[in-house]
Amino acid sequence: QTQLDSKVNLNTIFNTVADLVASSVSFSTGDYIPVRDGNFIYKVAGSGVTDHHLTTAGGVKLYALPDSRGFVPLRAMNVTVSDTMTAAETASDVATELQLLLTQGYDVSIDGFVKIASNIDTNGRQIVGTGKRTCGFFCSTAASGITMTEQGSELHNFTIESDYTAEILLTIGDGVQGNSSNDLTVSNLLVQDAAVRCLLVKEYSNWGAVECTFKRSGDRSGVAITDSSRATAEIRSVGYMTDCHITGATGWSLLLSYSKDGSWEENKFIFQGGRIHTGAEGLVRFVSYSEGGVQPAIFDGVLWENPGLTGNPGVAYSGIQVRLPKHFRV
User: How large is the greatest C-alpha to C-alpha distance in the chain, in angstroms?
Assistant: First the structure.
């Protein structure tokens, strides 16, 4: 029995979070209240606090506590977590509750699919799905998506999806020199159906991605592209991608764009294993904003496939496999 277990009020156990929220039972500040469904534990806050997570019908303010792994389950915030992405599309927005936990410094676990209608800032914390891509976010507005900032942010085991409404689904870094956007890590993600970018890595962001798929940027309808020249992934800063797949752009599948020449430490990029394929305008494009700049990049063991296509539904365009301007060296 842990020290916390000894403090839990076993005389008052609620079956569900909804039952707890609907309760008019009075509690004392500092009490610990268990909920059977989810094995959640709540701590009673003082009546004057404003940073609480839930309020019962009886006016009791509560904090949801981390589980044994140190994560606060998002479901403990009395939000809708759906079993499928389709169900999440019409569910209630959970962005406010999720952002509150991250801003307060909590790591968060999610055991299903949720809808977000605004941008989520990871704030140096971890967001983890409880199964490989069996959890996820439906991004319902143009501004919705996930932005990773601050030291050590992590994002694992999710599908991040829109219907070509969300402009940028996953942003890594804030693009500000000197800020602490370092050691940013993602793994086991499926990020798909963005209006502009599935992935945007901003300047000054040290980052890495493992076993992720970034798929389809730029709207398409039937056999026609309706939103052209969209890159699935755009990289502006030092980082690596291992066993990742980038596909389905109405423009270039992978866009490398840098504001300084290759002597700058922030420019180095490694893509190892995985696949780059199916871009309507081509597979890889390098854009340098420094005249005559040299860009160090390593592509090792990569499968190159289907230049000049958008994928499903397979719009055919002329395209080349890799575009290598004279100032681009592999």
Answer: 74
- Amino acid, single-letter form, for residue 183: D
Rounded CA gap, 21 and 13, in Å?
12
User: Amino acid identity, residue 42?
Assistant: Y
CB 273 within 8 Å of CB 242: yes
Q: 217-234, pLDDT tens digit by residue?
A: 999 876 678 888 899 999
pTM for the structure as a whole: 0.91
For 139, half-sphere exposure in the C-beta direction (CA atoms, 13 angstrom radius) is 29
- For the stretch 21-76, pLDDT in tens is 999 999 999 999 999 999 999 999 999 999 999 999 999 999 999 999 999 999 99
Count CB neighbours of 280 within 10 A.
Answer: 26
In this structure, the strands spanning 220-221 and 252-258 are unpaired
Question: 252 near 281, Cβ under 8 Å?
Answer: yes
Q: Report d(CA 225, CA 219) in Å as an integer.
A: 6
Alpha helices in 70-209 (DSSP H): 85-89, 95-103
The label of the residue with tokens 């085991």 reads: 157
110 HSE (CA, 13 A, CB side): 34
Which residues, including other chains, have CB under 8 Å from residue 209's CB and lie 6 or more apart?
Answer: 185, 186, 187, 189, 199, 239, 240, 241, 242, 244
How far from chain centre, in Å, is Cα 31? 35
8 Å CB contact between 230 and 249: yes
